[in-house]
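Subject: Sanity check before I submit

Could someone independently write out the structure tokens for this chain? I want to compare against mine line by line before I put it in a report. The sequence has 148 residues.
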Amino acid sequence: MFSKKKDNPFAQGGHTLFDNALEINGDVRFGGTLDIEGSVNGNITAEAAGDALVRVRAKGEVTGEIHAPKIIINGHVNGDVFCSKHLELAANAVVNGNVHYKVIEMVKGAEVNGKLVHMQEDSAKVAVPVPAAPARVAEVSAVPKAST
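---
Independent answer below. Compare away.
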């Protein structure tokens, strides 16, 4: 008569928008899609069994960890990011923390101030560090030195 999905409100989820005028102080647990245009001071955790998506939009800011199967970042994240399926770092993305991913897509201009850690396909809990310095994808141009 009752299914387990109805008992767990996070199993299917919907679409949630944290508007730019909203500030959340505390941890967030969700299912479905979460769009962040405001500020979150706390950890964000998606329902692991689902196909949840977190989007940190251009004016969005998260201070805390993000754990989700799918993550798109185009704003600021001050904390570690754990993505078990697909991570996209858009042009305005700034991550001050380590990024744990299975599949990553970085656009020119995205910035990671931390380690990029590839998670093996067979286990989301086992992480293999990628031997690299903090990554920054940006266009490099020569700036003339001022004469003394």
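---
OP: Matches mine. For the report I'm noting this point. Confidence is low (pLDDT under 50) at residues 1-5, 123-145.
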